Amino acid sequence: MHKHGRPYTCLLIDTHDDYFICVPFRSDIHHKNAFLFTNTERSKRSHSGLDFSKIVIVSDTDYFDTENAIVDQDEYAEMKRNLPTIVRAAVSYVDTYINHVTGKAKLHPREFARKYQFSTLPYFHDVMGI
Length: 130
Prior knowledge:
The chain is built from five helices and seven strands, in the order βββββαββαααα. By secondary structure, it is of the alpha+beta class. The mean pLDDT is about 90.
């Protein structure tokens, strides 16, 4: 992903479901569908974290760049310390969406709207096989 020639830095999660979940680092998040950093320099000024609502689902590894990503060291350290929690939350966010859309476990319409109204996941139905 690029924004005006600037790549997005993402946490890449291998789901073993024939696709990867890419969770972008964002510097200003104002919703609950994210892992917010709490002990970093940037988090003291803004609401930085990993934004689940902007997840990108990728199956084609040609989209991956092999260059090292630039992430604030304190954000990287906090992400590493909380990696199992972040991975569980991101996978749960995607799985809950899939279960709702496929009818396996429907959410209340208001709950679905709160969680997924601005989500990028509808763009990736083909990759997720739904």
